[in-house]
Design a protein that fits this description.
By secondary structure, this protein is α+β, with helices and mostly antiparallel strands. It is built from 4 helices and 13 strands.
């Protein structure tokens, strides 16, 4: 029996973006298609096989320690971006202001898809979902630059809706309009999760 099972859920790629210079800011530039390699999305500032440890893993590593890069891409959903914008009382949020690599449409409650799930493209390219991408100050700064007075509202509105980070398990081309099929791990939820979260 396979440990990963395809589901009836799939999503359409509605937006592809690339952050070319992270030092200059989080904004991503729109693309019609892109190549995925083991290092991530070609030309992406968040790419690479490894990355320096940051505050997200501070209980495991000293900042700057070289670790595997499981945060190569930032994947958001159309539905959750609309919910964030509505809570912020904005008409829309633009993917480039959030540093998005991909924006997809069609998978409900996308931010909470199980870690280690896969998204498989028609080319055979496969993304592995690492975990929820928690809201941070960097997209809030970009939102503030576009919509003065609204930046502070981003983090609370995006909680539980910020999408996921992902890494490339198998390379290939992706393009706007591609359908990504969701595969999920065939295992029950760990029964001790509530206790683990409390510590």
């Amino acid at each position: 029996m396979p440990a990963l099972k395809p589901t009836e859920f799939s999503a359409v790629i509605k937006w592809i973006g690339r952050v070319e210079d992270r030092a200059a800011g989080l904004r991503s530039a729109a693309l019609e298609r892109a190549m995925l390699t083991f290092a991530g999305l070609e030309g992406e500032a968040h790419g690479g096989l490894t990355r320096p440890a940051c505050s997200r893993v501070s209980t495991q590593y000293e900042r700057g320690t070289e670790i595997a890069n499981v945060r190569q891409l930032s994947v958001l959903s159309v539905e959750e971006m609309a919910a964030i914008a509505a809570e912020m009382r904005l008409e829309t949020l633009q993917p480039e202001h959030l540093g998005a690599s991909l924006v997809i449409e069609g998978i409900p409650d996308f931010t909470h898809v199980p870690p280690s799930s896969r998204l498989q493209a028609p080319s055979g390219a496969v993304l592995v979902i690492d975990m929820e991408n928690r809201p941070c100050i960097y997209p809030a700064k970009e939102v503030e630059a576009e919509h003065e007075g609204y930046g502070r509202a981003f983090k609370p509105a995006a909680r539980g809706r910020r999408g996921v980070t992902a890494w490339v398990e198998h390379g290939g081309e992706i393009a706007l309009g591609d359908e990504l099929v969701l595969h999920v791990p065939d295992q029950p939820v760990w029964p001790h999760l509530d206790r683990a979260r409390a510590t």
